[in-house]
Write a structure and sequence with these properties.
about 325 residues, four-stranded antiparallel sheet, mainly beta, five-stranded antiparallel sheet
């Protein structure tokens, strides 16, 4: 039986590339040029394909030439396949559900697009009426939650009938993540360094936790905060792009926080080896940094491109067979 190695696929939005990286050796295996800047990515259930949102040549609020496609990549051959045309502008957040559907938040299209991954075709467009930038799905795929940034609510979608209801969040929201059972949503505030804990059954905020040591920014500033949940569900990793900070937050009250400086422009985070490490893409550099959770200290960094401004946003682990 072939041995399996773990490689990374990385979206470098700064230079419009997707890279395959061996994180153990710290080497770049292959690079693909995209038609426009890639942002978020989601893998197929068997990790044989990667689906990547081609957002456009700008950023939220200043994306003059938005993309309209999802790039499709064969992760074993490291080759581009036929892209999926969405017919809506500025695809960003992605969520795959157990029934083989991929949901894509299109912020300039004011909608979430549903794709059937079996034939890689659009089957539906769910209108949220606002600039939905991120989307997550409950474990059973029955509900979607859209984060709308500078809008005063989250969008809760019932995937059975595409009905959309609102969960009020006065300041708007940034990055979002779900608890393992899909009953609690963690949402970062749009204009303050704070975490909202939301009960999805109640459709309401039940607690707000201020982040320690994050300076206040101007009220109109997009704080660009992200959050992810550890596999055990015992802690969160939170970062702030504008702050260059990472916080490890234990979910048992009183929410112990450990804060540390991280690379410039932190973006997507993933826990590795259970809760042992958290890896962070440094979006204003060309590196991913591994953090030891126990000591809350960096272990090492590796590059995702020879370009110092490659700007990695997202990454995922893929098994690669030794041939």
């Amino acid at each position: 039986m072939n041995a399996l190695k773990r490689h990374l696929i990385v979206t470098n939005k700064g230079n419009a590339t997707v890279a395959f990286v061996d994180p153990d050796a710290g080497t770049i295996l292959h690079t693909l040029q995209m038609s426009t800047n890639p942002h978020e990515l989601e893998l197929s259930a068997d990790a044989s394909h990667a689906y990547i949102s081609l957002y456009g040549d700008g950023v939220y609020g200043n994306n003059i030439h938005p993309g309209t496609q999802i790039a499709v990549i064969d992760t074993q051959d490291m080759m581009l396949r036929q892209p999926i045309e969405l017919g809506l502008a500025a695809p960003h957040g992605l969520a795959r559900t157990p029934d083989g559907m991929l949901y894509v938040a299109c912020d300039k299209g004011n909608a979430i697009v549903r794709i059937d991954l079996k034939n890689e075709r659009v089957v539906d467009r769910i209108v949220t009426g606002v600039h939905t930038h991120w989307v997550v799905a409950t474990p059973d795929g029955g509900q979607l939650i859209g984060s709308n940034k500078d809008t005063d609510h989250l969008s809760l979608v019932d995937t059975r009938d595409n009905s959309v209801t609102r969960i009020p969040v006065e300041n708007g929201t940034e990055g979002i993540a779900l608890s393992a059972d899909g009953r609690v949503l963690y949402a970062m505030d749009h204009v303050a360094p704070a975490l909202h804990v939301i009960d999805l059954d109640k459709r309401a905020i039940v607690e707000t936790v201020a982040l320690e040591g994050y300076p206040e920014l101007a009220k109109e500033t997009d704080h660009m905060l992200r959050v992810t949940v550890s596999p055990t569900g015992s802690r969160l990793a939170i970062n702030g792009f504008r702050y260059g900070l990472l916080t490890l937050l234990d979910l048992e009250a009183p929410y112990r926080q450990r804060r540390m400086p991280i690379g410039p422009g932190p973006m997507v985070m993933r826990f590795v080896d259970g809760d042992a490490e958290v890896w962070v893409a440094n979006g204003d550099a060309n590196t991913i940094t591994a953090i030891d959770v126990e000591s809350a200290r960096p272990i090492r960094s590796f590059v995702t491109s020879a370009d110092p401004l490659a700007g990695p946003e997202s990454f995922a682990f893929i098994p690669i067979s030794d041939r």
